[in-house]
Amino acid sequence: MLSTRFNPRLFIRGLAVVLLALPLLLIGTTFARPAAAEEPVVLIQEYAFSPAAITVPVGTTITWTNADVAPHTATNIEGIPIFDSELIVTDGAYRFTFTAPGTYPYFCNYHAFMRGVVIVTEG
């Protein structure tokens, strides 16, 4: 038959185990890494870039995703060619990593009225 009397030795041992294990449990939550930020996306839809202007720090990769019925491009406008997606078909995507700060206006080669700008900060 089991005894239901209070046993101080068992109580102390159990308490010691809990107190020793508690810091190990807290370490996992206290020092957990923050969730990685999601990669910014520019959606191409209804013959427009959305958002039309986006600001990101150096080293950021932006993905242009074509959710439109027509093919499009994301091509920088000024200076030497820095990025040019070429043809992005419906449901297709293009990724580019910005490695230098600056302002990068771009447009669609097929629909020149479609314009956007990426502003890259030192940040």
Detailed description of the structure:
The chain is an alpha/beta fold. The protein has a domain at 41-121: Sandwich (Immunoglobulin-like). It is 19% helix and 30% strand. The strands form 2 sheets. A 4-stranded mixed sheet has the order 2-1-4-6, with no helix packed on it. A 4-stranded mixed sheet has the order 3-8-7-5, with no helix packed on it. Strand 1 (41-44) and strand 2 form a beta hairpin. The chain is elongated and about 85 Å long. Residues 24-35 have low confidence and may be disordered.
Give the end-to-end Cα distance, rounded to a whole number of Å. 70 Å
Q: Strands of the largest sheet, in order across it? A: 2-1-4-6
Q: What level of helicity do the residues show?
A: 10-25%
User: What is the general shape?
Assistant: elongated
Give the name of the CATH architecture of the domain at 41-121. Answer: Sandwich
Biggest β-sheet description: 4 strands, mixed
Structural class: alpha/beta
Please count the helical segments: 1
Radius of gyration: 27 Å
Percent of residues in β-strands: 25-35%
What's the number of extended β-strand segments? Answer: 8
- CATH T-level topology of the domain at 41-121: Immunoglobulin-like
CATH class type of the domain at 41-121: Mainly Beta
CATH superfamily of the domain at 41-121: Cupredoxins -  blue copper proteins
- Mean pLDDT metric: 83
Which residues form runs of ≥5 with pLDDT under 50? 24-35
Summarize the helix and strand pattern as letters: HEEEEEEEE
Summarize the structure.
By secondary structure, the chain is an alpha/beta fold.
